[in-house]
Amino acid sequence: MSITSAQRPDVQEPWRQEPMRPAVRRLARPRPSRTRTGDLLAVAGFIVVVTLGIWWQHGGLTGLLAGGVSTLSGIGQVFGLIAALAALGGLVLTSRPRFIERRYGQDSLLAAHRWFGITTVLALLVHAVADTWAWGAATGGTIVTGLVDLLANQAWMVAATAGTVLMIVIGLSSWRRLRQRIPYETWYFVHLTGYLAVLLGFGHQLTLGADFATDTFAFWWWSALFIATAVFIMYARIGDLLRSLTRRIYVTAVSREANGIGSLHVSGPGLRRMRVAGGQYFNVRVMTRDLWWQAHPFSVSAAPTTSGIRFTIKELGEDSTSILRARPGTRVVLEGPYGVFTVEQAGGAPVVLVAGGVGISPIRALLEDCTPQQRPIVIVRVRDERDVAHRQELERMVEARNGVLHVLAGRREWFTRNDPFSPDILRTSIPDIAGRHVFVCGPASLESAVMTGMRKAGVPTRNIHHERFGV
Ligand SMILES: Cc1cc2nc3c(=O)[nH]c(=O)nc-3n(C[C@H](O)[C@H](O)[C@H](O)COP(=O)(O)OP(=O)(O)OC[C@H]3O[C@@H](n4cnc5c(N)ncnc54)[C@H](O)[C@@H]3O)c2cc1C
To answer: How far apart are CA 381 and CA 390, in angstroms?
Structure first.
């Protein structure tokens, strides 16, 4: 009698076996950035020196020092150049070029973009007033007659004026007091018109700009700067968007974590080739009829693996609430990852991780990347014990890494009177505090209290890292 393989456990029948599931593995970490600050400053310096060199060669400095209308016109010219260069620099910074973003992080780029924006608007105002005034004075009139004459008789001046008005509106909409009153989406779309504003100003620079109208080299230098900026932005922004659109990633589940906090779990073949570290974030676009047109930044809240990424999300407004209602199978577009809020910043040193509310999201993922040698001290600040998301995971991971978890629950008023981040309390409760790196993520007030306390307790500023959840 022959014996069938079904009766013989040692005989394998491949066709009867479950299809092989590829092993789940941690996604690779992003490659370290090779960008050097010196190189970037050299490129920026070269552009500024050549541009000002052209201005100087055309007698810009002599005119500036000549007095009267010439001085006014010289001020207008030089501030026009400053405004244009700052605007181009600002656009480059906000286009999230990977090789720069990986080095400094998106929030530093946005902070720098803000300064470039302020410079652009202020320089533009000086340029517009000085040049219009000089134009009016040169024809024996006033600033008003100068403006009327420019608008009526000079090519591209209507466009340039529209661009200036747009820039001022963008500047005003970013003024913190106004920014907090307008919905994020309105602010964002107003901000997008910055590209148009820069473009509208370009024509009058070539036709009226004393430096570019008559000098072929200067004309091509200036045109090349604008073309190079446009190509750079398209490469960085559209490249990122296209890459994200080609990755197939879907919602796999939504889970409840704590009061008003849930998790969005996503997965798909698109994850396999991604490089992500705990603490980084993606701009998440959930492709439903209501949500596809907007992307919201969310940090990964667990070590990303080939089987999925988890985002822990607080139901703050309409969109975050709707995102947590997405059905399994819904397509998700992930742009990123972005940010340098990763464990690499600590270079293996012991760490203190501080989270406020949903700031637990990147802190939880960072904790997973810590080693037992880093003995992580995790401090979670919440109003109510029930607000701590992923508590069991935190306890398990802290224990496995020789760390400690402190939950500070209570109302803000109590903590104001008994500040847990006062230097004395920090030094007493964490004796080796000065040798630790600190990672903090939470509301701005918590972040600043932690950063001030840590600095006073002896932690060097460069060892304090924070992720800002606002713009
Ligand atoms: C780098 C980063 C990482 C973040 N990680 C997380 C996270 O892991 N979990 C979490 O719950 N939240 C996170 N946030 C905050 C989250 O993006 C906002 O709470 C969310 O976008 C709110 O959207 P909403 O329309 O529901 O709320 P709204 O009431 O419309 O907005 C609430 C606040 O979020 C800001 N906001 C709204 N839309 C955006 C947007 N597209 N981009 C930037 N800010 C926006 C608004 O300016 C406002 O201050 C992160 C933010 C940043 C900048």
So the answer is: 14
Structure tokens at 120: 């652009």
**Partners of residue 380 on adjacent β-strands:** 355, 407
CB-CB contact of 37 with 285 (8 Å): no
**d(Cα 8, Cα 5) in Å, to the nearest integer?**
5
DSSP 385: G
> What are the tokens at 198?
């820069």
> What digits encode the pLDDT tens for the residues 211-264?
787 889 999 999 999 999 999 999 998 888 888 999 999 999 999 998 889 999
**What separation in Å is there between the alpha carbon of 116 and the centre of ligand 1?**
24
The answer to whether 83 and 123 are in contact (CB under 8 A) is yes
Please give the pLDDT value at position 163.
96
What is the CA(296)–ligand 1 centre distance, in A?
A: 6
Indicate the average pLDDT of the chain: 90
Which segments within 347-430 are labelled E, that is strand? Answer: 351-356, 377-382, 404-409
Residue 209 CB neighbours (<10 A): 20
Rounded to the nearest whole angstrom, what is the distance from the C-alpha of residue 438 to the centroid of ligand 1? 23
Is the Cβ atom of 471 under 6 angstroms away from ligand 1? yes
Report the run of H or E that residue 338 belongs to, with start and end. strand 332-338
Cβ of 318 below 6 Å from ligand 1? yes
pLDDT class of 470 with cuts at 50, 70, 90: low
Question: CA–CA distance from 358 to each of 368, 382, 465 (Å)?
Answer: 17, 9, 17
CB distance 316 to ligand 1 below 6 Å: yes
Is any ligand 1 atom within 6 A of the Cβ of residue 290? no
Residue 257: enclosing H or E segment and its boundaries? strand 250-258
Residue for token pair 């091509």: 220
Pairing of strands 281-286, 296-299: antiparallel
Asked if 131 contacts 71 with a C-beta cutoff of 8 angstroms, the reply is: no
Q: Which residue has the tokens 């661009």?
A: 163
Q: CA distances (Å), 373 to each of 2, 109, 111, 440, 456, in order?
A: 60, 32, 34, 20, 25
Tokens of 209: 């700009």
- Distance in angstroms between the alpha carbons of the first and the last residue of the chain: 77
Q: Which atom of ligand 1 is nearest to the CA of 179?
A: 47
CA atoms of 420 and 412, how far apart (whole Å) = 11
Task: Give the span between the Cα atoms of 423 and 412, in whole angstroms.
Answer: 19
Looking at per-residue confidence, does 49 or 206 come out higher?
Answer: 49
